[in-house]
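Fold it.
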Amino acid sequence: MSRSLNFRLFALSAIAMAAHLTAAQAATDTVLGETTVRATAEEELKQALGVSVITQEELTERAPANDISELVRTMPGVNLTGNSASGQYGNNRQIDLRGMGPENTLILIDGKPVQSRNGAKMGRSGERDTRGDSNWVPVEAIERIEVIRGPAAARYGSGAAGGVVNIITKKPTDKLQGSVTVYGKFQEDSKEGDTKRSSFNLSGPLAENLSFRLFGNMAHSDADSPDLNRTAATTTAMAPAGREGVKNKDINALLRWDLTPQQVLEFEMGASRQTNEYAGETAVSIDANAPIRESLLGQETNRTNRNTLGVTHRGKWDWGTSRLIFQYENTRRWQNPVALAGGPEGSISSTTDKITSKLGNYFLSGEVNTPLKLGGTTHMLTTGFEYRNEKLDDAAAMSLTTGTGANNVGGLVGSAGTRSGKSDAQNFALFVEDNFEPIQNLILTPGVRFDHHSQSGNNWSPSLNATYQLNDSWQVKGGIARAFKAPNLYQTNNNYLYFTMGNGCPVSSPSLGGGCYVVGNPDLQAETSINKELGVAYTNHNGLDASLSYFQNDYKDKIYAEMNDGTPVVVGTSQVYQWMNASKAIVKGFEGNLTVPLDGKNGNTLKLVNNFTYMLKNHNKDSNQPLSVIPKYTVNSTLDWTINANWSTQLNATFYGRQEPRTIQTGGAASTGAQLQEVSSYALYGIGAQYKINKSYALNFGITNLADKRLYRESNNSAAGASTYNELGRAYYVSLTGRF
């Protein structure tokens, strides 16, 4: 389908929806009588086994130091990992749902996709030098967080094969009110960086039918000492990098206009800035470019600015409900040059001329929910469309190795004068979902989504989710869906290339010591996954709640950088790799939860809250290598005690199973020695307490990692097996919130 035809379809869909809304508003005599209105498909899917909600109470009790990933990781099916088993950027681990990797976790803010991390170049291993997109909203501005895993997430389109993290922000209030929070976390070891932040929220009415919300945030996490990992390192120059420092500045304003009692129009504008404090990070060799790295310690080597503008319309009509969302997201990333021609991948330059990438994302989505009665059965039909337009301009890595004299790299890339860092892609989608009860106690939610991506073509995503109520306490739930992820703009642009001397290059002959080029491939297909889950849930009126589910994702067409026909293409002393759809993978395991009331009504005085994840498989089927370094099991437990109206406290524990590295390196050689090193199982304990000083002030304080269990990063890559990240030692935190 041509781009112009794609746009015309989008325009026709938008016009048809607008006409539908206008006609429905005029048809005020349309009455559904006594029809019982079911939940929408989206609301029903949020009752699936693979869905968890982090409540306002939990956000208050376990407020993260800076990034919400610290809290999301305590949900079932969630870990923090890299996007591969390479160990690169090990301390920048991101949210990974059900072992599918961070790139298959879609972050949403109020239902709008967040794509700023796509402005960071992707290396051959699939890693990016980014902290991801989970740190754009301060925790004090969040109402709740929905973590949606498995088949229920397929409705959200590309990038949700693992699942979705939907951050729901606080809404305007009907009277003027606000809050200010100051927070500090202080590491016991002076080599580990402290965190300080402050934030405010303000909301209320401006005039009749007009209200606002405003929040802002400033945060600073110090970089770890360059010597933090010295005793664990095998390097002779610099130790593996600890966590880099992070500085955040965020401001966001929302204006709500109640057009009528049934229609709401919201305008939103936001600006965020994140900068780093360099801690010595490099993608490959620990000793690579050591003098330059030492000179940059503590300095800003990358900065990301994210600006958003959005409009949302919601309506309640005689025939149902509607929602229309538009957002423009602009991301600008400045960084010191890395992966320069002639140097190791990820090596960093001290030049003052930073490389700039610009990423623009346009998002438009609309849906209507219509209750119907067909054949005596009540249905809630959802129909909608989605349009995404992504534009990237990044001239960072298009240089040939000095002295090769090649104008055409293996016939895959044009001459230097014709290459461009500009690329774009459009995705248009239509979807239909239904929610109905064909027989008593059985609720079915079928759906189908059609996507047309300008680079990777068409994709169908059918789904079916079901819930059967056995009795008042027991439910059986299951689902199956086809999910997908379109290739990113770095992978599809055949004008884009970068040079690497790491990751197993070259692979065929020791005499070819000139590394590799990695180039884009415009013929890539989307990665796809068939996601399944089946389980049981139990609840009673005394607060006992439990669930157990089995999940399995059959993952294929995963994109790797490989030699395009298995034979090295050689330019000078370098070989050429191209992004390819190369492999199949399987991810499967169990997850569940158990909440036990111990005292008070439904455990509202004392309760024990537990969840667990057990991974059976997380491997590439072709090579039997792990997709990422992930614990064999994770168990989260919290003993929650509400002492009285003013005091509450929690004792929490997390148990991690062993973590296994890959046994074959990227270049194909078998892992040996320290490359096979596992991370043994370990546990982290913490305690926290909250005290309401009065109706205006509240105090929150506690200790993390009570037993001072530490893990040290032994390598910046897989040279030390799974020991590629730091687990920080004991720390003390305190926050004070004032409200009016």
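The helical segments are 3-26, 41-45, 56-61, 69-72, 290-296, 489-492.
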